[in-house]
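TICKET: design request
STATUS: open
ATTACHED STRUCTURE:
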């Protein structure tokens, strides 16, 4: 598999693979946070009274 095109830049397939990897990792990260918090909303500024 050639990762560079004739001009020396990344090929379309390489760019597509990177985008897919970023989307997959961000989805997995979100799913992991959801599981760890068991669906509770995360408050960044502390609990509101």
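STATUS: resolved
RESOLUTION: sequence designed for all positions
ATTACHED SEQUENCE:
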């Amino acid at each position: 598999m050639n990762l560079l095109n004739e001009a020396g830049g990344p090929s379309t397939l390489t760019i597509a693979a990177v985008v897919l990897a970023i989307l997959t990792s961000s989805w997995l990260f979100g799913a992991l946070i959801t599981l760890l918090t068991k669906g509770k909303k995360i408050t960044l500024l502390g609990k509101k009274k």
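CLOSING REMARK: The chain has a mean pLDDT of 78. The longest helix spans residues 12-37.
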